[in-house]
Design goal:
elongated
């Protein structure tokens, strides 16, 4: 085997290498939980697209011991790492179901507030 082949075998994706390092017991619980979530992220996204609820996904992964986070933490991770990122990636569209605002006429002055009362309107 040449040197390039060996480098490809030992060099994995950065996310994969980080997840391996974080699985070490010396890493914080939060770091291990995040690594476990990120390892399952594609499957979680696919399950959401298939119409499964977040609770059903969490319950299954928790029962399989693929993740150990609480349901609340799992919801936060789904919202932060999947849903909000996908929303940010989508181009912002102007809402088409809003009614147009009525035209403003130049000859109407509308209401103007004056903090000093007129002498006629003073209440005694």
């Amino acid at each position: 085997m040449n040197n390039n082949s060996l480098n490809r075998i030992y060099m994995h994706n950065l996310s994969y290498r980080i997840s391996l390092r974080v699985k070490d017991s010396r890493s914080s619980r939060n770091a291990r939980n995040l690594a476990a979530f990120l390892a399952q992220r594609v499957e979680i996204r696919n399950a959401l697209e298939d119409g499964w609820t977040i609770y059903q996904i969490w319950e299954t992964l928790h029962a399989e011991q693929k993740i150990t986070t609480s349901y609340n933490t799992f919801c936060n991770q789904v919202n932060r790492l999947i849903i909000k990122r996908e929303e940010a990636a989508l181009p912002k569209k102007k809402s088409t179901n809003q009614l147009p605002s009525p035209p403003r006429h130049a000859d109407t002055t509308g209401f103007t507030f004056s903090s000093t009362p007129l002498k006629d309107e003073e209440i005694l």
